[in-house]
Amino acid sequence: MRIVLVGPPGAGKGTQAAYLAENLAIPHISTGDLFRANISQGTELGKQAKAYMDAGNLVPDEVTIGMAKDRMEQPDAANGFLLDGFPRNLAQAEALDGILQDADQKLDAVLDLEVPEEEVVKRISGRRMCRKDGKHIFHVEYSPSKTDGVCDICGGELYQREDDREDTVRKRLEVYHTETEPIIDYYKAQDLVVTIPALGKVDEVTQRAMAALEREAA
Ligand code: AP5
Ligand code: MG
């Protein structure tokens, strides 16, 4: 399957993507994680992305679309993928349509994680991420690690993202409303959007998403 996950910062895209990708045996492709990996490796792409991310703005499309396309063309993504954080504006959505068309592929569903704004602020402010690859995500209150500051899964160091400061979170939410929300209507016009209420326990949300995907596939 080829799936896009959308939802505001802190909605739980990364958390859900880890479980959904495993259940569906497809790779989880997060442009945010790819940028953070480039930053920690000190690459040119990482240097270009960092200032935009720290300010809560989108990284320019010229950089983002090429990076996402390269990742989608890796062999492990030949039979499907779960996109998390891409596309994030109309130009990226149109670029993705072009990439898929060229490969004679199409999207199966766009899952829209719906969470009230006060909840996303709580989720982001307590989030701790594993430094090793960013795929292991904890929360100081909702899903704490057994040992403070240490990832239960791989022993990596847990840290708070630089863009999780309050003023940057406000900016990211504003960018979500102005730039990203319009892609939901774009995909509604293609009849691809499934809205998933994303309040409740992590595994309850995963079950809702899996049930919705099964209905779409039927
Ligand atoms: P990105 O990394 O994509 O960040 P984001 O969209 O702001 O989303 P987050 O990762 O903050 O939240 P999430 O929905 O993944 O939530 P999570 O699962 O961690 O992008 C960062 C930056 O990179 C952007 O601002 C931009 O600069 C740049 N960028 C990336 N893609 C780009 C693109 N396509 N174009 C241009 N620029 C781009 O969960 C949050 C917390 O909640 C965790 O602590 C978790 O444990 C907890 N939680 C999750 N689910 C639950 C639950 N059900 N109950 C309780 N707690 C929960
Ligand atoms: Mg994320």
UniProtKB/TrEMBL annotation:
Organism annotation: Streptomyces ochraceiscleroticus
Primary role: Catalyzes the reversible transfer of the terminal phosphate group between ATP and AMP. Plays an important role in cellular energy homeostasis and in adenine nucleotide metabolism.
Subunit structure: Monomer.
Enzyme class, first EC level, given as a word: transferase
Protein name, entry field: Adenylate kinase
Record bears the keyword Thylakoid: no
NMP as annotated region, ranges: 30-59
Localization (cell): Cytoplasm
